[in-house]
Amino acid sequence: MSATSIAGVPARQLAAAADDNLAVHASWAQERLPGARVERDAGLVLVDSGLPCDTFNFVLRSRLEAAAAPARVEGAIDHFRRAGRPFSWWVGPADAPEHLGELLRAAGLEAAESEVAMAADLHALRAEHEPPRGLEIARVRTPAQVRDFARLLAGNWTPPDLEVVRFYEMATPALLSDDAPLWLYVGYVEGTPVATSELAVGGGVAGLYNISTIPSHRRRGIGRALTLRPLVDARAAGLRVAILQASADGLALYEQIGFVATGRITEYKPPGEGAR
Known about the structure:
The chain has 276 residues and is an alpha+beta fold. 32% of the residues lie in helices and 29% in strands. It is built from 7 helices and 13 strands. It has helices at residues 11-27, 69-83, 100-106, 143-154, 162-175, 222-236, 251-257, and strands spanning 5-6, 9-10, 37-40, 45-48, 58-60, 88-91, 110-121, 135-139, 182-189, 192-202, 205-213, 241-246, 260-269. The strands form 2 sheets. It has an 11-stranded mixed β-sheet, with helices on both faces. The protein has a two-stranded antiparallel ribbon with strand order 1-2. A hairpin with a 2-residue loop joins strand 1 (5-6) and strand 2. Helix 4 runs antiparallel to helix 5 (162-175).
């Protein structure tokens, strides 16, 4: 069952805010990279990082009129086809038209992943948690910490995706600026980086992304700590609602913290790219 409202915010309004937040996560740094291209209008947001890596190339926040939707879909797909770069198209509860997924499949894309969209009232957060002994969580403030963050994320693929490292290397000046709406965190155990999380501020909500822990340090409460720290910081900054996309592995943890389901997010990709 999905929540009808969170912190007094109706589900439909929350879904739109979540899409706006995802757009900040997916495009803010790219807009500041040489060679990248971000197009946004009332109909959709297209993000092309210029890198051959679908981790940073997106189409999202679709608000298409039914009659114009097929042509807009073909146009966005054709952009990446001509550029020769992989990408993913994210479809959530607020996207339009309602049959957007069918249009994407008709245009040749395939559903690669589906995750649960979740939201939480930050003032009702169950944040009581004793961090694991020896864990230190740093809000990223230096180029070395950005490198730690990037290398941990790159390690989520086998072999590690070096394009992820390259992206964060190029984005470092923007990410370390005082006005950056992307807050990066790294968890260290005895000085070794072992976990990451990211909070994006946009759409009037706090969005959690890139929560990961290296295999050797899982099931120790580190992921929970890296989830809670950004949320507590967001609450201190005056935000009321947090959103995230939960895989099956993380669903129970997020429910324990206080998140509830608000819908589903599905990722579509060209054939052969599959889930990463």
